[in-house]
Amino acid sequence: ADEPLAKLDNVMVAESNAPENTKVTMTPNADKTVWTGTYITGDKEDRDGTATVYAFGYEDLVGNEGVEDTTTFNVDRMAPPAPNLDAITGFPETPTPTATWLIESEAEDNLLGALVPLEKGTVKIRVGTTVYTLTPTATGYYSKSITLPEGITEVGIQHIDRAGNAGEENAENITLDSIAPSITWDTIADKALVDGVQINNATPTITLTIHDAGLGVDNWGFNADDNTGYSVQLWDENENVIGENLANALAHDNNVLAFENTLSKLADSTYYIYVEAGDSQLMDNALIEFVVDTVAPGAPSVDAAYVITSTMDAPMIVKKASRAIAGTAEAGADITVYGTVDTTETTLTTPTLKLRAPPMPRSAPSVGARLNVDGGERLWWRMNRAERVCGRDGEPASSPERGGSWFRGFTRDRRGPPQHGSRWVNNRSQSTTTLPLNTRPRTRKRRV
């Protein structure tokens, strides 16, 4: 009121189609300018519509009576209907390989017993636990793009009118499977099944695995019309199917399909394994080649330019640590290049070394030297101006030659030039070097 009222005790509400009016008790605030009353509608939906409020017989503080006043409001007890998901454009199909969908439709409301556009109402779209709130236009139109996660997700839609009446949510479980089955090659004849693998087993066992974490792969032959099932085939070198689809010796699992089959005897040739698999939405296929070769290859040959001819009496001296070699062999064969080394070690019990003494000053009657030999053989010698023969450590230098002849030259001495590969010792000193003395049991002569 625009001034304090002494009383306001005649307030009535008349609903549409109501047989009588309902009185509302009003309570003022402290200064009696604001009066509040509560009206509770009934539950009869046929009374929805415009309701009229009548106020009369009110007085101010000095007793002046006001004129009758009226106002109206709308009563809406009916909730909007549950949306028809089949009639909504872009509502996700199930199952589906598509993650993103544009949902659009026109929402309706129940008003006065008739379906009308859900003007100024609310549309809620729920994707799992995520809720999107939309306000439709005057015609009830709304749209929203949603993205589904991989797997099973519940998608629901609900309409709420402007009076707050919430209609029933309509929802459906949607399965998104956007990943095609995958094919993993495992083994063939206990070897890794890789493209072009060669095996020497005419009845090989092949293993492979088909993975599909979503809808899975059904246990029947692959159907291209609906992308379901799987097939494993053996093809010849001209890519013609040999026989029927190969049978799986292992128990079937839709999501991790382990496959094993032992092939019937195959002739030496090139073959292919072809696999198709689908999960009703997407499919994949794979082809791999293998070769059956049960005949050993012929011996390889070395080109003449790379042949090394070496004997004990006429050894070939090679100054490089590596050497190229070339030849011919069966295509696809593995060639092993190796050398042979006599690993038998025999200790010479009477090795002899002949050294030629250089011209020596008369003041130097002799020259001494000691030689450490591989295998622990240690030799020494003492020379005057003539050629002398050395013996084993501790034996006199005057020993005669024993056990055949080993003529061995020494490396260059830094104090003088080489002469015939010999080591010249020019003063009284000792010199240590190393010689290999691993030989075969028989006596041999070797010159360096």
UniProtKB/TrEMBL annotation:
This is Bacterial Ig-like domain-containing protein. Residues 390-448 are annotated as: Disordered. It comes from marine sediment metagenome.
